[in-house]
Structure formats: C-alpha cells, structure tokens
Records
---
Amino acid sequence: MDKGGLSYEEMQDASGLFIPENVRYMVDSMSNYSTNTFRLESVSADTAQAGRIITVNLPSSSLLDLQSFRMHYDIVCSGPANPAAPVADEVYAKLPQNAAQSLIQRVETSLNGIAVSQGLNQFNTAYNLKQLCKGSVPRNSTVDRAVAGSEIDATDPTPSAGSAGVEAESLVVQDWIGFLGEHSTRFLATDIFGQLQVRITLAPNSVLVPKVFGVAMGTGLANATQVANAANMSYTVNNIYFTVQSCSLNMAYNRMLRERLEADSYLPLNYKEYYNFSQGNITTGSQTTRYSLSSGSIDKLYQTHRDSNYQTTGVVPLNLPNAAVGSSVFCANAFRFRSFNSWGAGVNQKLAGNFRQRSSFNNIQNPQYLQDIMGCLCNVNYGVDKVGMGADGTMVSSRESFNDGRFVAITCMSHPTRYGVGCKSGADSRGINSSLTYETQGQAIPPAGNPAVFPLDQSSGSAETFVLAETTAEIRAGVGKDITVLF
C-alpha cells in the first residue's frame, strides 16, 4: 500500500520515464503489527546421542517466520579416560567443520500430518556441499564461526572450571536447506497450512574428527592403540530447545488469504526439495553413475566424490592445501570432497589435469563437452548465480583445496531469476521414464593402505560418487487445512 502517491508501476505508465527509487518521496506504514519470539521444547528427551531422533512441534494458528527457526543445543565429545592427566595414544573427539549442521543426518518435516519432505538421507553432506557455493569466507569466518562451529579446533582441550578436559560447545542451527530454509513464502500461516512438525535425526559418530593427545591435528595415526581409541569416539547433545519468531498482521491480510482460497481453492507455496544418489566401489579412472528422478522441476545437480571410508569412525582430517591465507583449515573425512584428478608423472599440478566430467538428462548431455577441473571451479559461483565483479565470493579460494577437500561439479538445469524459489524453471521429468547420468574420466583412486602401515594411510582403495539433486516442489493448502504436495 503506497500512502504517499503513485506507485512505481503507476509512475512508469503515467510518464513513460524511469524514476529511481532513491529520489521518490513516498512512505509506507504497517498498522496493527506485532511480533514476538517463542522457545519450544522438544517432545522427545533433551539429551541424545548419535542416531537418536529429536522432534519438535511448532505453534499452530500463527504466522511463523521460517527464517527465524533455530535449534539450540550443547554438545560434549568423548576424550581421554583421565582428562586431567592424559597419556600418549589417547584420542580426543573433535567437532567437524560446520559442526551445528554436520551433526544432523536427516530432517523430516510435515504439515498437518502430511509429509512435505522426503527426508534427505545425508542432510549434513548436502549442507556442506551447498555451503561451498552459497557460503562465503567473510560470513563463514564471522557469523558461522561464532554460532555454528564453522572451523575445526586443532588444539587439545585442557581441564578448567566447568570443563572436564574434553571438547564441549554450545551451538545453534540457524541455516537450513530444504523446506525450513528455502521457500517462496518466508512467513508460513499455520492456521491455513496446519501445524508444522520437525523430526531431526542425529549423525553417526563417523562425522567426528580424531585428535591424538599431544600430536598435531591431521597427523596420521601411529599405531593400533590410536586406531582403536579413534574408532571409539562419540558425542552427546543436551539442553536441546528451539526458537521461532511469530508475528501478527492487520486483519486485512487474513481476509486476503481467505479470499484467495475462495477464488482459487488453494494457496500455493514453493520450496526446495533434495534427493541424493550414490555409487560406490569405484577403483578405476572412469565411472558413470546412473539414476532416475521424477520431479516437476529439477533445478541443479551437485556432484562430488569421497573415499569409501567416509563412514568409518576415526579417520584423520585433511589439512586443506592453500585453503586460506595465513591459516590452517582442516576438513573432516566425512566431508572431504575430492576430484581424484590425475595429472600424470612429472606434470605441473597447476594445470587442469586429466579429470573430465559431464551429466546427461534423457541422453541430452550437459555440458555438451567433457568439462575439466577449471570449468567445474568456475561453475562454483556461476551455479548459484554469483556472477559479476561485485558478486559475493564462495568458500573455494584455491584450485588445490578445490581438487582435494572442496570439490563440487554443478550442473544447472533451471533459469536464474530474481523470483528465486517462487518460479519453477527446471527440467520436468514427471510422467516420463527419466534417466540421468554423471560421467567422469581421468581419475586416479589411491590404493588401499598397506596393513603393515595402515595407521599411516587410511585410504580404502575405492571411491564413491555423491549426487545431490535440487528440485522445486509445491505445497497447495486448501480449505480445512487440506494439504497437497506436488514433488
């Protein structure tokens, strides 16, 4: 509502001239507006370990700001048997990068009892993969570092007041992927869409990072005792609660929504939905991962590879090569995304190397050529529409760290638009026998560690691909909180 004169569109129609916003003398106001923040308790126990499910019900008959939904918790990791006087070969369990989200394995959401999320099997992997592109170094080193544990702490915890000499930290999850964080309508009217329930499954202990007492982080495990101690790492979360902000608008807004229901019989809401696919036991220099997906809008494909031991508890982290200026940045093995690029003997590794990749949708290749590592690196920002000299950066700051630790190959299948999630423009694969592939060539999979020196080399000898498919789904809320989901 424009109280001060003609709207921008009306000014264009009236004069045919463009009027910059910063020279217009017009003001707006919102009447009868109020807002408040609420603390929500879990309907399950407030203490949990790996694999446990945490459930919370959000307020009904409210207008909820989904961007304000946060999960608060404290985490305590395992450590030496006697933290006050640890001995050699004892292992601390340390938190991985992006710890707040990395400890979540699965997020399920339902509206009025109807599932609106299929339950991405590896929420933490998907988040870390997308964060490489959507995130940026300034945000990661400020907001994320302060509240979400964006970096791995490479030091030995020391006993002090209130601490048993193990890693313990308070964390907040405030950035979500999927329905809770990526939607066309930020404020959800639960009196129309129904009560929102969230179920969160905690990640396995394999996401933790081992730190041998008195030994530099990232150093290979030296003996069987260290391997056994690292394999026994665990964590416990407690003091779990949630917060969300609710607001109240003028009654005219509620009348408007109900008039829309009467006219169109439903209210639509778009949101991001994710599916993951993988193929393991890859030992050769080329592979093709085949899968199918039925969706009204396949927007992007995020593709990467990991050592097959990423689910093994106790594998040492990688000190990312040339990841950031003047700092050591470690990467947990569970989220070590690798290209496995092969350069050949004596070749300058600043060159692109032999790695090539491409995807296909119903036999239509994208790109139309085999893309090298530099093309993939450029797509990290292009794939999330960070284009131009003034655009935000990403989390990838060197080709060395991109090759080993932060690799992702993005295939775009939707149109970049200012309407974001509100517009479906991706590939429609519903009603057809869709077939998608991810093809790579020119890779070199490291051999398995020699049993005689296994602690020094924990490579499994095989790799696994991980494909994250980003789609746009739609919820239609009808009269009587009748929910229909179009995936």
Note: The longest strand covers residues 267-282.
---
Amino acid sequence: MSRLDDLSTVWLSVAWFAALYIVAAVIYVVVFALATGRRAQAFKAVSPGLLPPMGLLFALLVGFLVAQVWNDAERAELAVDREASALRSVDLLTASFPGEPQMRMRVLLRRHIEEAANREWPAMAEGNATLTVVPTALNEALRLAVTLTPRTEGQKTAQREIVASLQDALDARRQRIIVSESSVNWVKWTAVILVAALTLLAIAFVQSDNRLTAAISLWLFASAVACALVLIAAQDRPFDGEFRVRPDVLQEVEPAKP
C-alpha cells in the first residue's frame, strides 16, 4: 500500500475505483459465462438472504478500520499540539533567567523544532522514525534547565516548570513517533478486500438471471466499496499523505532569532 499512499486523493480515488470496477467486471463476465445449464440453476439458488449479513460484515470491517485511522490521526494531532504547548511554555518561562541562559535555551528550542520539521517528519512519513534516535537539542535543553541557578523564589518555581515542560515535550515527541508507526496492516487490507470481492460474487450469483440488474447491482456495490477504501487509504498513515499531520504548530512556537 505504500505506493498508493504517495498518490493525491484524486489519483487515489481513480486507482481504487478503477480496481473495483475491474474486479466487478471480471466477476460479471465469469459468472454469466458459467451461468448455463445446471450451473445457472445453482447460481440462482444462492439465497438473497446471504447478502445482508455479508454487507454487514463488510460494513463492520470498514468501521473498525476507519475508527483506527481516525483515532491515530487524533492521537498524532494531540501529541504535536502537546509538544508545541510544552515548548512554548519553556520559551515563556526562560524569561525569568534573562541573558545567556535565556538565549541558550531559545537556540536549543529552535534547533529541536528545525530538526523535528526537517528530519523527523520525513522519517515519520515513511514509517522509519525510531525512539532510539536521541533528540539532542531537547536533551541539552533539559540539562541546561537542571543546571540553572535560581536566586529568587520566582526563579525556583520557573525552573521546576521548565523542567516539567521539557519532560512533557519529550514524552509528546515519543508519542508522535509511536503513532507514526501505526498503519492498517496487510492482513486487515486483505480481509476487507476479500469480503468485498465475495459480496460482489454473491450479488452476481443472486442476479445471474438478469444481466442488467446484475450490472447495476455490481456497479453500485463496487462504487460503495471504492468510496470506503479511499476513505481508509487517504488517512492510512497519520504523518503521510494529503491529510497528514504537519509540523506547522511546532513551527509557530519556534522562538524568533535575535
């Protein structure tokens, strides 16, 4: 599915609709070519009552997959928002330590955001991001925060909050990398596509005595299946594709250069 993920929504739709229409056409041709003599009677004997449970099974599978991709997208957005909020808090709190500490902290925050946007995001889009890579700038910022020398009660409070915010940012980064590895695996894709194909086959059997009705029924269900699969494929990976989570929120809180 990785090649399909690289397509725009328009071309993704074209690919899935074309694939489903081809499958439906092949089923139509094969079933009506075989629908002669005893086979025609056997095809027609397939109960129409079989279609509702098969359609329901397909709907349930699609529902589970849609819930997964939407949940992953929401978790990704929450992780990025949380990381941005934590970094913004650090930037504001370092004003309590004017001079070299504040300047150094802001440089580290800028470096972390730039590395996240330019290096981690492409890696997450490809599913190659890993927690084994240490966020150097963020770790240095945490060490700097711990070594600050507060002179007033306000600075002591600010130091505690800075350390807590940096730890929160580190945890949020871990969460977005974990979510970036989530996708609909091949077993789930195979199951939903196979159930859709079997349902198309059952429709062709039930309508095997009427070519026009069979063609219309197959076209309608194939179109519905294509719509559902496009919906899933367009958001399969939260950090990839046209509707991916972008680093815009992080870049918005990037401290300005002096």
Note: The two ends are 45 Å apart (CA to CA).
---
Amino acid sequence: MPTLLNIKKDLFMISSRRQSAHIENRFPIARDGLIFILLGLIISVILYYAGFVLAAILMVIVTLFIIIFFRDPSRTCDAPHNALISPADGRVLGVRHLGEGDSPLRKNTTKISIFMSIFDVHVNRIPVKGRISEIVYNNGKFFSANLDKASEHNENNRITLETDKGHKIIFIQIAGLIARRIVCWINEMDYVKSGQRFGLIRFGSRLDIYIPSESKIVINVRDRVKAGETIIGYLP
C-alpha cells in the first residue's frame, strides 16, 4: 500500500517531468497555450454548426491570435560565459542605476526593464547560467506594465540567481493590466543554463532584471530585444 511519502515523491516526479517538458519544448507553441487553442477551435466548430457563422469566424480570428501569442520559437545564442542574455522579448523601457537602498540586491545595481506587448513572444528565458537561490511570488495590483509603478505594486514573481563566479542577479516577472497569470517552470536550487526557458506571462507584461552596477550594458532605452538571443550586457 502506498505511503504518504511515496505519494509525495510520485507527485514531485510528475511535476518535474511536466516542468521539463515546458523547458525543453520542441513545439513551435508553448504547451501552456495548447488548451486555449483547443478550446477556441471547439467553440468555433460549435458556433459554425449552430448557424452562427459570423461568430464562428470571429472565434477563429481570436484563436489565431492565441496561437500567435503562445508561439515559442527555438532560440540560440553563442555568447561568452559572462554575457547577460535578454530574459524577455520586447522593448527596453529603462536602464537605471540604483543605490543600495533602492535595490533588492542591497548594493549598487543597474535595473533594466523590458516591456512585452501582446504581440511579443511571452516565453521568458534565463539571462545567465547559475543556480536559483530563491523564488518569491508576491500578490499585487494590475497597473499597465509600461508604467514605473508596475515594478513596485503589480503582482510579480521574483527570481534570484547566483552565477558560478558568485555574482547575484534578480529578475522579476511582472503582471500587467491584461496579464493575470505568471507561470514559472523552475524551482529553488535548480541549476539553469543561459537562454533556457523558465516561464511565461499571459497577455502583455513586463520583466525587470537587476544586475551588479559594474556590469557593462550594451543596450539602450527603446531598443528591441529577443529572449535567449540579444546580449544586453556583460557581468564583471
């Protein structure tokens, strides 16, 4: 007869396999989107055979948008070991230098903010290899993700990573006005690779990354970046 400990181990193994499937996804569509796409197709067929042709056409258009939103292209970046890869697709909202009193790293820090519109790829990727030391999910509000106060007040998922050379960085998935679901596929103590998938945010959002102030930044405000491809800076 299975014990409670064995049941917990089995559940953990199932969860790990599911997370691995998301991270190593070989489909052009993120797995989190498959249920929404299937639901859209089913509703479209039902509406069509019920005689609501115009509604069925509109539902097909919505489904096509969902397919585009959940696209998950393969990405590679042949970068130096100290390179910081963009964790998100989108437009750079800001590059700010923070003192230790304003930084979650408790030291002089550079903060880079990236805004993901509903038309960007929303799968997030690890900026540099290392070990995940902490993941903290915070409830919050849903201001528009392109506003500065979104970083402070919106619902978010904060991930702390420590590199092999002892550098600590923090990257934060931040929900937006429309985005109401933050997904994270990694766990504390996981060793992660630069550019690997780690999560997504559903329907328009933002990602902030905090890095040591000594890092060399090679992007500017309003630049377009791609997760897993664009180099945004270099650690010291």
Note: The first strand starts at residue 83 and ends at 85.
---
Amino acid sequence: MATVRASKIKQLLARHRPGTVELASWLAAHGIPHDLQKHYRKSGWLEPVGVGASKRPGEKVSWEGGLYSLQVQGKVPLHAGALTALSLQGNAQYIRSGHEPVYLFSPLKTTLPSWYRNHDWGHPIVHIKTAFLPPELGITDYSLNSFTIRISGAERAMLECLYLTPESIGLVECYQILENLATLRPKVLQELLEQCRSVKVKRLFLFMGEKAGHVWQKRLNLSTIDLGKGTRSIVTGGVFVSKFALNLPEELVNL
C-alpha cells in the first residue's frame, strides 16, 4: 500500500504546475481518491487551500494560479477582465495602484467555489456574473511562468470597464484608459459591439472613442451596431450629448 501511495504522489508531482492549486475533484478523477488526498495532507505532501483545494507545501499560490486551476481543472467558465486584464497586458500605468480588486467575469449561473472566494490572495476578488457579452468572444491567453490563464483581450476588457462604470470604475478614469488604447483591433471591436447587449456600454464606448480621435473608431461600421432608443442618463443632470443620447458628467464632456 505504501508503494502504491508513493507512486501516486510521484505522478501528482510530475504533472504539477508550480504556483497552481490541485482541485480535489480533479485529483479524484485522476486516480487519487479523497481518502488518499487526506493521507497526503497528513503526511505533508499536500497543504489545504480551502475545502476542495490543495497546494504544494511552502509553495506560494497567487490568484492567477487559483484561476488557472478553476479554468483548466474545474472547467469553470471564468476569466479575468476589465481593469485586471488591462493591467496584465501592460496598461498598468493608467490604472490605480495598490491592492486593487481582481475582476473575474462569468456567465450568470456560474458559482465561484468558497475556497477561492475566501482565500487571502492579497487582493479582493470581485465576481461579475453577466450576459452582456458572449462568453468566449474577445478572450485571449495570458502566459505566466508555468501556466496560462484566460483573460479578456484589450477590446473586451475596455467594454467590461464601461459595464462597471460609474459604480465601480469612474467615467473619467475609463476615458483616460481608452485614450491610451490606440491599437485596438477594429475587426474585434466590430464583433464585440454588434453582439454587446448593453446599450449604455456601446454608446459610452463610441462617445469616448470619437472623443479620443482613435483611428480604429473611424473603421467601425456603426450601421450594424444597435444603439437602442431613448436617452441614457449616466448621471443625474449633467451635459446632454445628442449624438449618442447620453447625459454625462460635465468634467468628462469637457476634457
């Protein structure tokens, strides 16, 4: 029995990716049942992260490593988006510093396991459940040292920021970020905007893109993008922008 247990743990360690978590369900599906997992924890081969998840003892695991395990082992339809994705892709100079929230997006009925929600990652985890964009559209791979996670490409991440404005992310901050995104891909933007279900997001994006004067804005076909009807008041009062039927803060309009 001891030889079998030693063999199984060697197999586990051989396929382990440093900095990631091992889900109990995944281990069980690969021949390491829960009683054997318990033995490994008692023996010091595994260290619990929370109920249903373990890691290598002494190994530091980041929120990215936990997300990798959820995506790959747990098959959870979850990705890093909005400011988090923009920061990972090199736009951190435009984003607030400090222990900022990690924004994770998923379809409406997705549940984030308690071990991930409750673990201290050094950043608060904000789980956004929404259907305002198709789940896989505009998603890209982001590689770290030993693993890859799924995150929003810059185009989708910008729309996600606007989805969260003005409650979680300021309108002016959104514009300042978009102002520096001069290399967004028109083809990707076109598809995202055509399939986006939020009129607020689409109008704000087009208003800001036009205000910033980016080349990609001029390559969009607005005739196939449904901008809805009626006025959208982002703030009470403010300045009315007739072209996009938006009531916006004066400080944004006059930037």
Note: The chain has two domains: 2-55, 77-226.
